[in-house]
Design brief:
Layout lengths: L4 H7 L6 H11 L8 E7 L8 E8 L9 E8 L8 H14 L6 E6 L4 H10 L2 E9 L2 E12 L8
Helix pairs in contact: 3-4
Length: about 160
């Protein structure tokens, strides 16, 4: 219910319908917690009624991914943007990826005009590669490839 046109374009190129969302959730219910595809929901902590803020995922398989790479995705519903939720969500996903010995690098695919996502990626330590490629869910759109090296020494360590 909280999706907007910008979010729909980023994720699958169109808005979720109840049917497409049900189909997606049915598929994800079959995924293993340590499987090659993992999706997470970000929910407001301490709220009397659980409030969905956004979500994201890690995918070890997909177009343009090599062994040791995983695609990192993150999104925030319009009503919850500009409050730091995207940065906290993405950082939590990076922590999960760091704990997975199969993942050495995270690949982020960001629309050229998505400055908020670029800011989140930069705060994580990801860097743009200068490579533009096809959006994995929409052959008509291009994205910029960003990479985060998980095995590099973190600042302050």
């Amino acid at each position: 219910a909280g999706q907007d046109e910008a979010l729909a374009a980023e994720i699958i190129g169109r808005s979720w319908t109840p049917e497409t969302l049900d189909a997606f959730l049915a598929r994800t219910a079959l995924w293993r917690a340590d499987g090659p595809f993992r999706e997470f929901a970000a929910v407001a902590a301490g709220a009397p009624v659980p409030t969905l803020l956004g979500g994201g995922g890690l995918a070890l398989l997909g177009p343009g991914l090599e062994r040791g790479e995983a695609a990192l995705t993150y999104w925030v519903l319009r009503a919850h943007r500009s409050r730091g939720h995207g940065r906290r969500l993405a950082a939590a996903l990076v922590d999960i990826a760091r704990a997975d010995a199969r993942i050495d690098h995270l690949v982020l695919r960001i629309a050229p005009d998505n400055e908020a996502s670029k800011a989140v990626a930069g705060a994580l330590g990801a860097r743009g590669t200068g490579i533009e490629e096809r959006h994995p869910a929409d052959v008509h759109r291009r994205v910029q490839r960003w990479v985060l090296d998980l095995r590099a020494e973190r600042p302050g360590t």
